[in-house]
Design a protein that fits this description.
Number of helices: 6
Mean pLDDT: 81
Order of helices and strands: EEEEEHHHEHHH
Number of domains: 3
Strand order of the largest sheet: 1-2
Number of strands: 6
Structural class: alpha+beta
Shape: flat
């Protein structure tokens, strides 16, 4: 599918990333490069036409396992105490493995039970302003221009622009979260909620 360059380095270009499709089963498709401005590799976006996928409706909760420090310690303790007698009594390899796996899974299920966790509805990107979005688009344009340009001043300008944008994003985040905390009735709770959202820690119930 890829018939355009995907890697740019200095004055060299190459197409090293490819996507293969079965034209006998899928005839309507299109592929375009994505200039992300993060490396010398461009991503590829493959569009599949007339492909119907039923979207799963999010209910706000999902099943997960509780891999806590105490649960891991309990799991290790049960493994140490297990004699594996039922597995050793077998003389056929498949039977021995099945007995071993059955005991192991029982210990695993007992140590790490399935619990219900809820999706985080907090919008982590609410601090992104219209100006930041425009600046990010301009950054990508500058990257594409500087990538194929040998003028050192252009590359210096691009790096300087990236530095300013990083500082702007950092300040936008700071102002947004400070405002959340200042307008909150429970500042401590809001602060910890922000920390958990930023560190991607999930709360289990």
């Amino acid at each position: 599918m890829v018939n355009f360059p995907t890697r740019f380095q200095h004055n060299h270009i190459s197409a090293i990333d490819n996507i293969f499709v079965n034209n006998a089963r899928l005839q309507q498709c299109n592929i375009l490069p994505i200039h992300n401005g993060l490396s010398d590799h461009d991503a590829q976006c493959l569009f599949l036409k007339n492909l119907f996928i039923k979207k799963k409706k999010l209910s706000g909760k999902y099943k997960t396992r509780l891999f806590t420090t105490d649960a891991i310690g309990h799991f290790q303790k049960l493994l140490l105490e297990e004699t594996w007698e039922t597995a050793y009594q077998e003389h056929e390899v498949n039977s021995t493995f099945n007995k071993f796996l059955r005991v192991y899974l029982n210990i695993f299920e007992a140590s790490f039970p399935i619990a219900i966790a809820y999706f985080n509805k907090h919008n982590d990107n609410a601090w992104i302003t219209k100006g930041i979005r425009i600046s990010c688009k301009k950054k990508r344009s500058l990257y594409l221009f500087s990538r194929n340009c040998n003028n050192p001043e252009v590359k210096i300008h691009y790096k300087h622009y990236c530095s300013i944008l990083r500082k702007t994003i950092r300040e936008a985040k700071r102002l947004y979260f400070n405002e959340l905390i200042a307008n909150s009735e429970n500042k401590v709770k809001t602060t910890w909620k922000i920390i958990k959202n930023l560190t991607k820690k999930k709360k289990h119930f």
